[in-house]
Amino acid sequence: MKSFFFFRSIIFLFLFCFSLSFIPPVYKLKYGGITRQEWDKDEGKITYKLYPGSPNWQNLSEVSQMTLSAITFAEDSKFYEHMGIDFNSILLSLKTNYKAGHIKSGASTITQQVVRMAFLDSRKSYIRKVREIMGAFLLELFLSKKEILAWYINMSYFGAGSAGIRHASHLYFKTKPSDLNLNQSIYLALLLPNPSAYRKKLLARKLDTKTQIRFLSILNELKNSGAITEQQWEHTINTGDFGSPITVEN
Q1: Which pTM value belongs to this model?
Q2: Residue 94 vs residue 40, higher pLDDT
Q3: Shortest CA distance to 184 belongs to which of 194, 171, 197?
Q4: 41-50 as b/e, with b when 16 or more CB fall inside 10 Å?
Q5: Residue ranges of domains in the chain, CATH in brackets
Q6: Beta bridge mates, 224
C-alpha cells in the first residue's frame, strides 16, 4: 500500500513539473515583463524589453479608438466574445490543414498571439499550438480583455524595425498613436500579422489590388459592426489608397 501511494505521488509530481514547463508562464504578463525578440529579414534581430509603464509602452487610452477597432476586427473579430479560443476557427483550421497536408492555417485569436509572441517560438507545430491554447485559457483568467489588447498592440511587430504601436505610428505616419485617423488605422492593421507582405506598399504610399481587397474587408467590418458611420465609410473608400479611391469592387 505504501509503495502504491509513493508511486502515485511520483506520478503526480512528474505531471505537475511537466505542466509547469509545458504551459507558458503567462503570469509574467500580470506581475512582471518580458524580453521580446523579433527577426526581420532587412533589420536583423530586434530585441526589446517590455512591461506596462516601460518607455515605449502605450496605454489603450493613448491610442486612437479607431486604431484599436481596426486592429481588433482585422485580427480577431470575436475578441470580446470568446475566452481566448475561437473553437469554430480552430475546427476550420484543422480541416484546411488536413486538406493542405501541412500546417497552413493557425486560427489564432489575439489572446493566443500574445501568448505566442511572449513565450513561444515561431515554428509551426501542433505541440506549439496546444501550448498556445493552454496559455490563452490561463491568460484570460489573469488579465482583462483591455490588458490583453494593450499587450498585443505594444508587442506586435509592424515591420521596418517598428516594434509596437508607438514606433509604427511614428515610422509610417510621423504621428502619435492617439492621432491616427481611420485610413492610417487600417493601414497599420494591414501589417498584422505579416508585416513583410505589406510594409513596402505602405512606405511607397501605394496599395496594389490584393492590399486594397484586404483594406476594404477591414473597412467593411468596421461599418457592419457600427464602429464607423456610412459617411466615414464613403470618405475612406474615396481616399483609401493614400488619397486616391479604392478601385476594387465592394
Answers
A1: 0.87
A2: 40
A3: 171
A4: eeeeeeebeb
A5: 27-239 (1.10.3810.10)
A6: none
